[in-house]
Amino acid sequence: MRRTGWLLLVCVLALAGAVGWVYQQQKAAQTKAAPPKPVSLPAGLLSRADGGWVWTQTSGDKTIAEVRAKEFSQQSDPPRVDLQMVEVKVFHKNDAAYDLIQSDKAELRTEDGVMYADGEVNMTMGFQADPEARNRLVHIKTSGVTYSTLAGKVSTERKAEFEFENSRGSAVGATYDPELRELQMHKDVDLQWTKGKTTMRVAAGALSYKEQESKIFLTPWSRLTRGTLTLNAASSVVSLDKGEITLVEAESAKGEDKQPKRNLEYEAEHLVMRFADKNTINRIEGERNARLVTTSDSGRTTVKAQRVDMDFETPAGDSVLKKARAQGGTTVENVPPKTASRIMRSEIVDLAMRAGGEEIETVVTETPGEIEFIPKLETERYRKMNGERFWINYGPKNQIEKFRAAKVTTFTKGKPKQPDSKTTSEDLLATFDAKTGDLAQLEQWTNFQYEEGERRAKADHAKLEQATERITLQGGARIWDPTGSTDAVTIELDQKTGDMVATEKVISTRLPEKKPAAKKKTSLMDASETLQARAAKMTTRNENKWIRYEGGATMWQGADKIEADTITIDRKTQVLQANGKVFTQTRERPKANGTAPVAQLFTLVRAPEMEYRDAEKLAHYKGGVNLVRGDLRVNSRELKAWFTEEGNSLKVANADGAVDILQTSLDRTRTGKSEHAVYEIAESKVVLTGGTPVFTDSAQGTTRGQMITFYAENDRLLVDGAAAEPTESRLKRKQKKSGK
Q: Cα separation of 351 and 373, whole Å?
């Protein structure tokens, strides 16, 4: 038993040793197989992970944001998560798109849910979940980026470079709100669109891009530059369509387009620019105090109005002004280099440009307006026109070719010492010299009327030849002033001299001169009475002091009359000449004491020509003269008639050359023949001399002598003879009655 107990004890010890040895072997194997013991974490580091980290922010069943990093470490002071090789996806509300933020390093503050990346950050906004949907991506490259997981906004205060909607640019400071799809650029914004060969550049103090509206808001100032075009403005709004600029709306805007041969300027309190393909401007609309200026070698044109709309052609990607419409208190001023400037005013004015946009082709008003022609030289006249409508056609170098107006009134400033002139008519057409731009011809028709000082005129049609300053009135033409009037089918008036030519059915009237009666002097045509005339043609010169009537001319003053083929009056020399079938009729005037003749008595004279000199009160008839006064007739080659000083009554008549006198009455006939005869009206005395005068009285017989005097109103007869030629007198005796 004792040996068995000892053996059992040995077995137990052996078993215990074996178990211990196995345990040691297993423990050694386990120790050898166990992972190494981790290094102790630094103070403040709560945890760390390598090989990939994901953090998701949700709201209900929707994912708001997802943050991924290759390395992750969580800090305790301040509480944050440091991330390496970070990607952040911020999902839009409808989960149809998301924004991607990438950075090498970032930290996530767990207390406020803000992630911050100090280094370089690349952001791409607008990834579409649907691969077939169009991605309108916004790319931003910057640093110092803050992303709020609570607000969902991304921001930085540092310089940022970005690309969106076919543009690229930079700014200092930016904020992106994925919920609103808005990108804010805080200052120093510089943005460029490149389409085709031309780049559109936009600069502003600040920028706001609203993706949902496809609009860019520029504040508080903005500047757009495209090639030679520059627009400076206060705030402005840029509208986009598929990455293309379609519209720019600018406040307090001023633009300029400088080309080698033309310069275009425009401004307005509110300005709209509309774009065609490749960011080319095809229309500009200016509102409130709008202004358009085109400048070229041919001059400068300035348009001012409450609204100006400009349409552009877009050849080869350029914007060339084609036409413009100005509305609301419009003023159009055209200043050529050398000729008169032109200022047009109207409510609505349309301008069309020639090809190339350098020169104006037409200007049209749709409302009543006014145009001024302001001269550059003293030799040019100031002109102004008011009309219901204007049409202006321009030639090369912005020179006016034609100017039309309806229901127009014109005003022309007179030259020194000359009165101003004014015209009115229903229609007007002016043509201009193509080389100088000066007015060449002006036509007005339908109810034409003219005023120049005290002179007035009217006609169916009027034409002004500027080079000669000659006005032609046609159709029912009439011209008048305080001294009288002239009516004719056609009247031509020389503005420089005041000379006038009237043709066809001419009728003129000269009113009495306004002089004191005590100083009044009369002539063959009494200046104190109205003088009228009729002829086929009338010409006046030297301020109406020289007048000629031609073609069946007739002048009359009461019962006094002059008829001839041609009548010429020279008021300066006080000479009247009549030629061709001359006929004069003068009446007996009252005596100086006011005693009127018992019966009205006329002196009628016919001759081929006559000249009257008022200084001598002498009318000289030539070429075969016939005088008739009551029952007395005198024929001669020439006749000189003197008139009284106090009136135009005949005083003395001297007949020369083959004088033949005939006096007839109921009971007898008296004749006289001589080379010379003197007829003294006051005594009714006729004196015959020269060429052996002969006097025959059908009741008394024939008398011959060197000088024979007889009295037309009685039977008195005087005969003066010479010693060598005794007087011969034959008396006719009465015949005795048959049977006595």
A: 18
Least confident among 15-24, 184-193, 205-214, 280-289 = 15-24
Tell me which of 430, 453, 476 is where a domain ends.
Answer: 453
Residues 578 and 444 in one domain: no
Return the residue matching tokens 């992106």.
Answer: 176
Q: How many CB atoms lie within 10 A of CB 56?
A: 11
Q: What is the CA radius of gyration of the chain?
A: 58
Domain of residue 645: give its range: 547-731
Query: Token digits for 663?
Result: 């006096």
Tokens coding 206: 């600040």
Residue where one domain finishes, among candidates 404, 420, 453: 453
Distance CA 194, CA 203 (A): 15
The whole-angstrom separation of Cα 695 and Cα 672 is: 4
Determine, yes or no, domain membership for 46.
no
pLDDT at 516 exceeding the cut of 50 = no
Residue 525: per-residue pLDDT: 59
Total domain count, the chain: 2
User: Residue 148, exposed/middle/buried by CB under 10 A (0-12, 13-18, 19+)?
Assistant: middle
Please report which confidence band the pLDDT of residue 578 belongs to, taking 50, 70 and 90 as the band edges.
Answer: very high
Residue 259 tokens, joined? 């080309």
C-alpha 425/C-alpha 459 separation (Å) is 10
Element at 174 (helix H, strand E):
strand 167-177
Q: Which two tokens stand for residue 354?
A: 């020639």
Indicate yes or no: pTM above 0.90. no
Question: 689 and 564 in one domain?
Answer: yes
Domain for residue 10, yes or no?
A: no
**CB of 259 within 8 A of CB of 278?**
no
* DSSP classification of residue 382: P
Contacts of 5 (CB under 8 A, 6+ apart): none
Three-class secondary structure assignment of 617-672: CEEEEEEEEEEEECCEEEEEEEEEEEECCCCCCEEEEEEEEEEEEEEECCCCEEEE
Clarify whether residues 711 and 570 are in a common domain.
Answer: yes
Q: What SS3 state is found at 364?
A: strand
Q: Which 3 state secondary structure label does DSSP give 50?
A: strand
Where residue 27 falls among pLDDT bands split at 50, 70, 90? low
Neighbours of 34 (CB within 10 A): 8
Mean pLDDT check: name the lowest of 89-98, 258-267, 318-327. 89-98
CATH number for the domain spanning 551: value is 2.60.450.10
